[in-house]
Amino acid sequence: MVSALPVQAAITAISPLTADTSLLILHTEPDHPVASSFLPGQFLEFSLPGVGEIPVSYCGYPSVNGSIELCIRHVGHVTTPLKIALPGDSVGLRGPFGRGFPLPSFAGQDLLLIAGGLGMAPLRSLLLALLQQRDFSGRLILVYGARETGALLFLDELLEFKKQGKIELHLGVDRPDFCLAGPPDCQIALLPTLLDRLDIDPGRTCAAICGPPVVYPQLVSSLRLMGMADARIHLSLERRMKCGVGRCGHCAVGTLLCCVDGPVFSNAELAGIEEALA
Ligand SMILES: Cc1cc2nc3c(=O)[nH]c(=O)nc-3n(C[C@H](O)[C@H](O)[C@H](O)COP(=O)(O)OP(=O)(O)OC[C@H]3O[C@@H](n4cnc5c(N)ncnc54)[C@H](O)[C@@H]3O)c2cc1C
Ligand code: FES
Question: Which end of the chain, C or N, has fewer beta carbons within 10 A?
Answer without folding.
Answer: N
